[in-house]
Structure formats: structure tokens, C-alpha cells
Amino acid sequence: MACVELPVGCQNPGGSVSVSAPHIHAAAQAVAASKIYGSGDTAVRALDAIDVSFEQGRFTAIMGPSGSGKSTLMHCMAGLDTVTSGQVLIGDVELSQLSERDLTLLRRDAVGFVFQAFNLVPTLSAIENITLPMDLAGAKGDGDWIDEVVDATGLADRVRHRPNELSGGQQQRVAVARALAGRPQIIFADEPTGNLDSNTSAEILSFVKRAVTEMGQTVVMVTHDAVSASYADRVVFLVDGKIVDELADPTPERIRAHMNQLGA
Description:
- There is one protein chain.
- By secondary structure, this protein is an alpha/beta fold.
- It has a single domain (57-84, 92-261), classed as P-loop containing nucleotide triphosphate hydrolases (Rossmann fold, 3-Layer(aba) Sandwich).
- Helices cover 33% and strands 30% of the residues.
- The chain is built from 8 helices and 12 strands.
- It has helices at 70-77, 100-110, 126-137, 143-152, 168-181, 198-215, 226-229, 252-261; strands at 2-11, 17-21, 26-37, 44-55, 59-63, 85-90, 93-94, 111-115, 186-190, 219-222, 234-239, 242-248.
- A 6-stranded mixed beta sheet has the order 8-9-10-5-11-12, with helices on both faces. The chain has a 4-stranded antiparallel beta sheet with strand order 4-3-6-7, covered by helices on one side.
- Helix 3 (126-137) runs parallel beside helix 5 and helix 4 runs antiparallel to helix 5.
- The chain starts with a strand and ends with a helix.
């Protein structure tokens, strides 16, 4: 059996943690996952017994009306929040079974994040931002892979520049490269092009799609935009905390039709 980099199981000399596991087709999944905020009459059920699986090597978009639970689902799937009941798994690791330390290690080693606000450290260069998670973990990283990611994002001539010397699109490229650099099992992206113009958004999303098709990455993206979602292999639709529909091989027109049917 292959050794999968996850924060449970045997400890490696370099400090990362491994677990022996069979090949898993789902990079992440939720089983009867519910999230309730508050209690009694003021309780809000943000997620309602959701069952969903995100296949390895696929690009999935999550869409739905405002307040439908999109970001809550992503945060729970990524281990940034906890479900009230049910299960969330990254690979075959059930998140609720992890200690806080092991959950932190899993987020560091197995999960990548890209957010609308680029979240770059202003005093660091582009390459220092890209390698920051590995540097904080005391891990060297795969230099050849990092070079490939930098070349693929078109940042090779900008790696010594600080964020304030980069355009918004270049800063988001750095953020995407940072998410890819550690070769995580899955990347979660929350409105990653929300602050970008349409041309720059198209460039970023085209690269994300190439990362999936050419690099074998798994990406789950929350978006409200039909054009952005059309870059995905599959769109999952949420309403009132429930998955109500999904669409394969989406186009902007088909996505808009589905959203109109859902009253969004």
C-alpha cells in the first residue's frame, strides 16, 4: 500500500506524518454533514445532512443563492470549521477524529487554500510567499515541482518582486502557486477571482483548469459567477443548506438556467 501524507499514523523523520491507505478516488467527502449555528428558536441550520464527494483530479464548483451554505460547506470540508453532526473526510481521514494538532498538520500538508483576498505577506517576495507554508513547516519542498508551478503560472520573471510590485492578477497567481507548491490532496478556492477583472479572471481560471487536467490537482471552488463556474468539470448547487442539483460539463448558459430554476 502507498504511504499517503496525512497527519495521522507513523511519524516521519522530517516531521510530517503518514498513514498507509489504499487508493482513494474521493479527495474529500461529506456524509450526512450538518452544521447548526446557535440553539433553540434562534438556531440556523447552515448545512442539512449533506452527502457529497469530490473526486480526485476533478474541478468542482459550488454555487447557490446567498446564504445557501456554500462557504460553510467549503470551510467544513477544509477543516476550517466543524460540522455539528455527520462526517467530513479528507482522503480516508475523518476530521472529527483528529486532535487539534493533527488537524493543523492535515491542513498544512494535505489541503491548499486560495481566497478572494490574496492573503500574501507584503514583506516577502513572490517566491517567498509561494514557499511560505513549507518554510513554516520546516520542509524543503520539491524544487523541480516548484519551478514547474512557477513557470506554469507565468511568474518566472516576477518571483523576486513583492506583492505591491505585482498586479492583482499576478498576486492571485502567486496565491494559486502557493496552494499548488506543496502538492496537496485538494485545493479549496473561495471566490478566487472576485477581485479581478474579467480578462484576468479568465487567465487565472484557465490556469486552475490546467492544474487539474495537466497536473492532476483536485480543486473545489465556491463562486456566484456562472462564467467562472463554467471552467469546472462539475457544478454542485446548494439551496438552504441542501444539495439540490448538480451539472456535468457546464456552460454559462446551462448554469444560469439552473440558477434561475432555483430562484437565485
